[in-house]
Specification:
alpha/beta; Aspartate Aminotransferase, domain 1; 3 domains; Aspartate Aminotransferase, domain 2; globular; single chain; five-stranded mixed sheet; 38% helix; 14% strand
């Protein structure tokens, strides 16, 4: 090991890891930017060796030694992103998928293949995650509970406990360490999409699995669809086997864009979070707003309930983009009851705090005064309906 290796293996700050993780070998190859490997297959004149490597993968799911074999088994560009994300989350490994829902599906399939089809989950979750569990599309059975009820909800066939913190879309927070303790030997999966490893690292609080819709903050520019699970190497092996069998692989170009996105993740999250906190403060003081939700750990997401018609706010924005999704450099706003959580039963949706007057805003990197000016003029559109059947109450401070 030379001096350069010593520098690369020493503990590094998250901002440094975001820039360098997954790229440590580039200088030795005479490269600065990571290459994109678009090959679907790779030549090999040693078929006996290939057979041995495939047998090893089938047995453990470990990444095959030596050159790549086939795009569904793995890709060097995607592997760079996986390495980097694992380093940022503080886990042994990470496995990337074509979407966040493909990643969650793979986790459920792994546990289901072991006869552990029961899931304990805490609402609210992302609407499609909620639907996947409730509909039992992968043969799973779900028990919904609050964080305090996790231990009592466990059964001998419980294979997973699932929470999202801060939650989509209410930004409700969960004491991850307490929930992890309540799980006992059952793996805790934390959807860390909203917080990112910049604001919290669930593995340090006892979570065995950390899920991201990488489409959001990890990519950061609204131009890539992806999911990833950070975990220990044993579980990663099972996930790779499911990915190989089901084909939910991440395209190499997406892997490249995600690796590039990670390099600015800390800067983007911190800048957007500062703006979001200021917007939450201004919304809290606005008489047209019934309640504001903003998490204790901060972040770039703000949710708020209006006294008037939320659809008028959506129709009235001009700088802010009315669109589903989040985590981009530009600010987005949407009405969860109409879009992201529409697929959840209306009674369950409202019971989880997703009211009909709730709006969810993903704050980007624009100037805070420009964003506020746009919100102000959009809120004027719903003023005439203020006080008519309003839900909630005006909060004296951002609700946690």
């Amino acid at each position: 090991m030379d001096a350069h290796d010593d520098v690369r293996t020493a503990p590094r700050a998250l901002a440094t890891e975001a820039v360098h993780a997954g790229r440590d070998d580039l200088a030795r190859q005479g490269l600065h930017a990571p290459p994109i490997d678009l090959s679907t297959t790779y030549p090999s004149y040693d078929s006996r060796g290939e057979a041995a490597r495939i047998d090893a993968f089938a047995a453990t799911g470990a990444e095959p030694d030596g050159p790549p074999v086939y795009g569904r088994l793995g890709n060097p560009t995607v592997a760079r992103f996986e390495t980097a994300l694992a380093r940022l989350e503080g886990t042994e490994a990470a496995v990337a998928f074509a979407s966040g829902m493909a990643a969650l599906s793979a986790v459920l399939l792994v546990r289901g293949s072991m006869g552990l089809r029961h899931v304990v989950a805490v609402r609210p979750l992302y609407g499609c995650s909620d639907h996947l569990l409730t509909a039992g599309l992968l043969g799973s059975e779900v028990t919904w509970t609050d964080p305090a009820g996790v231990a009592d909800a466990l059964r001998p066939d419980t294979g997973l406990v699932l929470v999202e913190s801060p939650a989509n879309p209410t930004l409700a927070e969960v004491d991850l360490r307490a929930v992890a303790h309540a799980c006992g030997s059952v793996p805790l999966l934390v959807d860390n999409t909203f917080a990112t490893p910049v604001l919290q690292r669930p593995a340090e609080q006892g979570a065995r699995l950390v899920l991201h819709s990488a489409t959001k903050y990890l990519g950061g520019h609204g131009d890539v669809l992806a999911g990833v699970v950070a975990c220990d190497e044993e579980f990663a092996g099972r996930l790779r086997q499911v990915r190989f069998a089901t084909g939910g692989v991440l395209h190499p170009l997406a892997g490249y864009l995600l690796l590039r996105g990670l390099s600015t993740l800390p800067v983007r999250v911190r800048a957007a979070s500062a703006t979001a906190a200021e917007l939450a403060r201004r919304l809290t003081a606005d008489p047209r707003v019934a309640r504001v939700h903003y998490p204790r750990i901060g972040g770039a997401m703000v949710a708020f309930e209006v006294h008037g018609d939320p659809h008028e706010v959506i129709a009235g924005v001009r700088l802010i983009t009315p669109a589903v999704s989040l985590g981009s450099v530009d600010t987005l706003i949407q009405h969860p009851a109409s879009i992201s959580h529409r697929i959840v039963d209306a009674e369950d949706r409202r019971g989880a705090g997703v009211g009909d007057r709730l709006l969810r805003m993903s704050v980007g990197l624009e100037d805070v005064d420009d964003l506020w000016s746009d919100l102000d003029q959009a809120l004027k559109r719903c003023e005439t309906g203020a006080g008519n059947g309003a839900t909630g109450h005006r909060a004296p401070a951002p609700a946690h």
